Amino acid sequence: KYALIGNESTCFCANEPGQYKLGTEACNTPCPKNETQKCGGDNAASVYDTEVTAPGPPMSIEIQNITETTIRVKWTAPQAYTRITGYLIKANIIETYADFALIPLEWQVSNDTNESELPNLQPGSTYNISVAATNYEEEGPSISTKAETVIGTPDPSPPDIEIKERHGDQMLVHIPKANNVNGPVSMYRIVVSIELYQQGFITENLGNFTFADEQDLPYYIKAELAPDEIKNDFIIGDEHTYNGFFNAKLPLTNDIEVSLGIVSQKNHVRKIRYAESTKKIILNINEPEVVSP
């Protein structure tokens, strides 16, 4: 990089020293603050080599596309540089739902590239994305921006619901706190399957009690609860409505399977995962019903 000084104090920067060279006598104007140096002359400028060979920062940076595990970033070349041999892109974690350490990631791309897709990122995480131009081993100052990946399907699988008591058409359960490394745990869903033919349930067909009744489905969502609502034990079959899901009484003629679903929601994206295992309650035909006085 070069500094061009003329008219006593006017200074310009350039990546090249220029081609038209004048004799040293053409630059005969002393610099105002250092008379031992020359600051150009009539129709002439003094050229000084700054000895800075690292490129300047890219002019701009822009996030173009984001998925659960990728971010596409685009940038423009630096205004000041001697030579650009490539670009160094870094992704450093700022905020995440993961409960394990995420190492900083780096990618090197060629000097004729001005955009790149960054893979292997953690879902639902905020990263600081920076781009710096390089001159072989010299790395220039970077330009950076923040970007957040889309939340992923909850992981690990939701825990098992703890069955405490069953009295006739109601059941007392405890819902354990769920973990999710791919996003927030926004809501808990209680799913009941009336075991007619050991059929389990199809997640795509899950709905509320009314939908299950209309479609003649033996399984449905009993309730959708916020995280602060699972602190106390929950009664399945209390005939109350929880976030749009009617908690109907349990039938007295069939075995029941109970399982848990996790809803993760952020930035208008919703991901749901249901437990891979269920808790079966075998019907005791001789079990007395609890009758309110």
From TrEMBL:
What region holds the WSC domain?
A: 1-51
The record's section on InterPro entries has: FN3_dom (IPR003961), Fn3_PTPRU (IPR057598), FN3_sf (IPR036116), Ig-like_fold (IPR013783), R-tyr_protein_phosphatases (IPR051622), WSC_carb-bd (IPR002889)
* Keyword terms, alphabetized: Disulfide bond, Glycoprotein, Membrane, Repeat, Signal, Transmembrane, Transmembrane helix
Specify the domain of life of the species encoding this protein. Eukaryota
Mind telling me which SMART domains this protein's record contains? FN3 (SM00060)
**Main localization, broad class:** membrane
Q: Where in the cell is it found?
A: Membrane
Membrane as a keyword of this entry, yes or no, is: yes
| One Gene Ontology term, aspect cellular component | membrane
Instruction: Name the membrane topology term.
Output: Single-pass type I membrane protein
UniProt keyword Cytoplasm present: no
Q: Which residues form the Fibronectin type-III domain?
A: 57-156
| Protein name (Swiss-Prot/TrEMBL) | Wsck
